[in-house]
Design a protein that fits this description.
The complex is a heterodimer of chains A (329) and B (551).
Chain A: H1 16-36, H2 43-46, E1 48-55, H3 61-70, E2 76-81, E3 83-91, H4 94-99, H5 106-119, E4 124-132, H6 134-162, H7 165-188, H8 195-224, H9 231-241, H10 243-263, H11 269-300, H12 324-327
Antiparallel strand pairs in A: 1-3, 1-4, 2-3
Helix pairs in contact in A: 1-7, 6-7, 7-8, 7-11, 8-9, 8-11, 10-11
Chain B: H1 3-21, E1 24-32, E2 35-43, E3 47-48, H2 50-53, E4 55-62, H3 72-90, E5 96-100, E6 104-110, H4 115-123, E7 128-132, H5 138-160, H6 170-177, E8 209-211, E9 217-221, H7 225-233, H8 235-240, E10 245-250, E11 254-256, E12 259-268, E13 273-274, E14 278-286, E15 290-297, H9 299-311, E16 317-321, E17 324-325, E18 339-343, H10 349-361, E19 368-376, H11 378-431, E20 435-436, H12 438-467, H13 472-504, H14 507-541
Parallel strand pairs in B: 3-20, 10-17
Antiparallel strand pairs in B: 1-2, 4-6, 4-19, 5-6, 7-13, 7-16, 8-9, 9-12, 10-12, 11-12, 14-15, 15-18, 16-17
The chains are: A alpha+beta (329), B alpha+beta (551).
């Protein structure tokens, strides 16, 4: 039997302060950077036009830019996309988006016609066009926010039914932490926030929550056993006991994510990045956010009668009288 | 449940999955040599989203820039029928036309390779009117008023642009307004008023227009068209226009000598008949008039048409489509009945075909504008599928490596279950006619990594139970039992997130949510039920109890 990290007895939670500093610093870095410059929202959220063009010969980007400028399409971002023959043209500025309120396709039609005129009909192929009016963009934005909020709410309710409110709250706070770190990650990596990335974010939420649930499930079980130990110790024990599982699952998930990152192409890459980071932050938050928060909640609102115990010796074993801070000493 | 039943259920699911995924012959509209024909195609019944097969997605809204629409929801409902009729005739395999929310129409056209034409067909109002040209020289009478109005307007316009403020001549105004983009126009600054028998007024407006060849017809030099259009849209000018008349551009140009003109028509505002009585329209090519569209009216329309044209014998009748006069208005020789034709001018046969199509499908009750458009080329879609499959194969290989390396025999059981997982998930997607999108494909690859989580949980539990000194059989039973709550809780919470994503996502993201849901369902079945059965088979293989388990 090949075993890794079997029967370990690491004191994970002991490091919670250090980890808190690390993660808060990371989040603040992200938020600070957001304050300086807003994130890159995709045209799905801002409205605008995105075209992926393939040229017969590698074009001079300067010429492409000046052609668009002359046609009055200003502020277009031109980026190489994969090979040196493929480019994306993104028009996202306020004036352009406003002009799309009359018909979202306007700018795309103009770009295609001026570039075909300049480079020749057969030398420019439009491989992809996305044009979104500002109104639709606002709806997508609202939809994304509602989706994130709603999944929080639904999960909280479900967890409250299955566990109890202390666990549920700790799990949701850990998951919120992941939203913040992922947003910081997106910002620091200059990744564009698109609908697919939001979907990735929600998947990370699910994944991270999943991980927290596995540990909490073990905590619940260990509490039922009614050992004479503090919640602090129970948490550490549960994290250690689930460690082999965590390593294995994260390894397979990370393998799949890596395959996506390397082989699934440019369009999926931002999503794969979010997932790759999600595996890390999800694991981290299950140990270093969910557990300390649970300890804190238990201290603030101690249980009256111990945990729901089927074996009910009713010993308040789970009640922790010590704060996590003193507990580490 | 007895082992026999378990095996029967698993094999039954496999059979059902293979049946669901078996390539089948379907009749589809496919493109052959540029023509759409019905043909039988043999393919795996998995629906690919537009981002994987290429195609176009359009979201249309009521365009209120030309007037407020009172009952938008009703207007959209009516427009939906028209758009659907048009798309049905347009010739795309499996198009989708549906209402989204209260005020939007979604059109999906898989495999379309001429997005501009599709947009045009969907958006064209196709409002057909027959109007008699003005016989009363109403425009000539109104010209002094228009010129005067322009003189007033000119002050405000000119003042708005520094540098042109002093220049109050019409030439100055012309250069100010003229966004001359016409290609056909003769660029020489010739005095246009001298060509045809002209009105030749000195005013800003009357200077630009000349008498045409029939009552109510006027000519405007092609290069002046944007300027005149601009003038006509000024509110002061609109107020000065003759009452009871409308002014419409021709869809064609006319050449007089070296100059190219665009005719402008003054028409009786009330149409003698509209396109609502149309029953059929067909494209055709006439030797004398080029491409035409022939139309037929129903009985009531024919009767009205006969009565009205009978009243207007010797008058000229303009056929106006979407506020453009099609061709030169013909003179009414005698009462006309059920049939007529629209000349397409210089346009090609495809334009005639498209016009006939939209006329048959009926006019849009309200103008529509595009709110959201996505168009993806077929090659890009094929490329995405190829890359997605590569990533999937590599992900599977890596997961197999990890599972076999760590859990050995039990890992092999998990890998076998993973094979079934992939089969079941795809079958669920096919069975529910779910649409596979690029994010969906990515979600599927990801789910392969996550799917073994349940196995890992169970295996770790079995290891613990074995560590407690339990027998193999008991350890397996206990392992499954103890892992259950964690598996259920984590899968349900992921499924809830996916459901939210499905509700609030659109297109590709929705495809992602669907794959996630199908994957969760399939992984619960394979990890809990299938692997358990595998263990049971293994335990039953020999009469004496298995004493060791490779895990």
């Amino acid at each position: 039997m090949l075993r890794i990290l079997h029967d370990t007895n690491y004191n994970f939670i002991r490091w919670w302060k250090v980890m808190a500093v690390v993660t808060i610093a990371f989040i603040l870095l992200g938020i600070g950077s957001l304050a300086i410059k807003p994130p890159n929202y995709s045209i799905e959220f801002t409205g605008g036009t995105l075209m992926q063009l393939e040229f017969a010969q590698p074009p001079d980007v300067g010429v492409v830019r000046s052609t668009l400028d002359e046609a009055g399409i200003r502020g277009a971002e031109i980026q190489q996309f994969g090979t040196n023959k493929e480019f994306t043209v993104r028009v996202q500025n306020a004036a352009a988006v406003a002009s799309q309120s009359k018909g979202a396709e306007n700018i795309a039609v103009a770009i295609e016609s001026v570039l075909k005129k300049k480079f020749g009909d057969n030398n420019v192929t439009v491989k992809r066009t996305e044009a979104v009016s500002a109104r639709v963009g606002d709806e997508f934005k609202r939809g994304a926010v509602i989706a994130i909020m709603l999944s929080f709410l639904i999960t909280l309710v479900y967890l409250s039914i299955r566990f109890e409110w202390r666990f549920a709250a700790a799990a949701v706070i850990a998951t919120s932490h992941d939203v913040f770190t992922t947003i910081a990650f997106l910002k620091l990596m200059h990744l564009e926030i698109s609908l697919t990335v939001v979907a990735g974010l929600l998947t990370v939420l699910g994944y991270s929550l999943n991980d927290t649930i596995i540990i909490f499930d073990r905590v619940r079980e260990n509490l039922r056993k009614g050992r004479k130990e503090t919640l602090y110790e129970t948490l550490n024990r549960s994290i250690n006991e689930t460690l082999p599982r965590s390593v294995l699952t994260h390894a397979t998930t990370f393998a799949a994510t890596l395959a996506l990152l390397l082989f699934a192409g440019e369009v999926i890459r931002p999503f794969a990045w979010v997932m790759a980071f999600g595996v890390v932050t999800g694991t981290f938050s299950s140990i270093y956010v969910a557990a300390p928060v649970l300890l804190w909640i238990e201290r603030k609102w101690p249980r009256k009668t111990g945990v729901r115990q089927p074996s009910s010796t009713a010993t308040p074993t789970s009640r922790t009288t010590r704060s996590p801070v003193t507990a580490t000493r | 449940m007895s082992l026999k039943w378990r095996i029967a259920i698993i094999l039954g699911l496999v059979a059902a999955s293979i049946w669901a995924l078996f390539p089948r012959t379907v009749i589809e509209r496919v493109k052959r040599n540029g023509e759409f024909v019905y043909d039988t195609v043999r393919r795996v019944p998995l629906k690919r989203g537009l981002d994987l097969q290429g195609g176009m997605y359009l979201a249309l809204e009521v365009d209120e820039s030309k007037g407020v629409v009172a009952d938008k929801a009703k207007a959209i409902d009516n427009a939906l029928k028209v758009v659907r009729n048009r798309i049905d005739e347009f010739g795309v395999s499996e198009p989708l036309v549906q209402k989204a929310g209260n005020d939007r129409i979604i059109v999906e056209l898989p495999g379309i390779d001429d997005p501009r034409r599709a947009e045009d067909v969907v958006q064209k109002s196709a409002f057909l009117e027959f109007q008699i040209t003005d016989e009363t020289q109403a425009l000539e009478k109104a010209l002094p008023r228009i010129d005067a109005a322009l003189k007033d307007a000119k002050v405000t316009v000119a003042a708005a642009t520094p540098g042109a403020a002093k220049d109050t001549t019409s030439a100055g105004l012309q250069s100010l307004f003229s966004t001359d983009t016409s290609k056909k126009a003769d660029s020489t600054k010739k005095d246009t008023t001298a060509v045809a028998g002209s009105i030749g007024g000195p005013g800003a407006f009357s200077k630009l227009i000349q008498q045409g060849g029939m009552p109510g017809e006027y000519y405007v030099a092609q290069k002046d068209v944007p300027l005149v259009t601009q003038y006509l849209s000024l509110p002061q000018v609109t107020a000065a226009l003759p009452p009871g008349k409308v002014i419409r551009w021709s869809s064609d140009t006319a050449s007089l000598g070296a100059q190219v003109y665009r005719p402008l028509y003054v028409l009786d505002a009330k149409p003698i008949i509209t396109g609502e009585y149309l029953t059929d329209a067909k494209p055709n090519t006439s030797p004398t008039e080029g491409n035409i569209v022939e139309f037929t009216m129903n009985n009531e329309g024919a009767r009205r048409f006969r009565v009205e044209t009978g009243r207007h014998v010797k008058d000229f009748m303009a056929i106006v489509l979407d506020q453009r006069v099609m061709g030169r208005p013909p003179v009414i020789q005698s009462a006309i009945g059920a049939r007529g034709q629209i000349t397409m001018g210089g346009k090609d046969l495809q334009a005639a075909q498209d016009l006939a199509l939209v006329l048959r499908a009926g006019s849009l009750p309200v103008p529509l504008k595009v709110a959201d458009v996505r168009q993806i080329g077929a090659s890009l879609g094929a490329d995405s599928i190829h890359k997605g499959i590569t990533a999937g194969v590599i992900a599977v290989a890596l997961v197999i490596l990890i599972m076999l390396g760590y859990y050995r025999f039990s890992g092999a059981l998990a890998v076998a279950a993973l094979g079934l997982y992939i089969l079941y998930t795809l079958a669920v997607l096919a069975g529910f006619s779910a649409v596979l999108t690029l994010p969906g494909l990515a979600g599927f690859v990801l789910s392969i990594g996550i799917a073994v989580d349940a196995n890992v949980l169970i295996f770790e539990r079995i290891r613990e139970e074995l560590g407690h000194g339990k027998t193999v059989r008991t350890a397996i039973d206990e392992g499954f039992r103890h892992a259950m709550s964690a598996i259920v809780d984590s899968n349900v919470s992921t499924a809830l997130t996916a459901a939210v994503l499905y509700q609030y996502g659109t297109g590709p993201v929705r495809g992602f949510a669907v794959t996630l849901l199908a994957g969760i369902a399939a992984s619960m079945v394979t990890a809990i039920f299938v692997v358990r059965t595998f263990y049971m088979i293994w335990l039953n293989r020999s009469r004496e109890a298995q004493t060791t388990l490779s895990i």
